[in-house]
Amino acid sequence: MQTCYCHSGLTYEQCCQRYHQAELVAPTPAALMRSRYSAFVLGLGEYLYQTHHPDYRQGLTIEQLSQQDVTWIKLKIIFQAISPDEHFGVVEFKAWYQNSDTRVCLHERSEFIKQDERWFYTTGEMNPKAIGRNDPCPCQSGRKFKQCCLSRKTS
Questions:
Q1: Where is each YchJ-like middle NTF2-like domain found (predicted)?
Q2: Residue 133 within a domain
């Protein structure tokens, strides 16, 4: 069986395929991030378009999202957080890809919103600065990072 492209450790059938085939919706921003990475690997532009919030598409097309001009290598989730009201989420990740003869690391902190019981990608900050212990928590709780999501930080 094919292991999932998102490197979750599960098979593709147990993991992202269920979201790609609309059997389930991603239950968390991190699950949506993983499924979007797998969709980039597979060139599933329709899925990427549908999971990108309409207010943030800025002219992006299914055709553009379907292009497979790089070879995706690996995904690593660095940090994930969900706001206390469970309508806003943040996922920081690194994704490696091969472009011609160059290996590149894409480092992004992505933002997600939940609308009608579905998570959507909105925007991302490339090469984000590290979150300090005393910085505001990215989950928008209003608390300091050390008093909020730092204790729940996952790798």
A1: 28-124
A2: yes
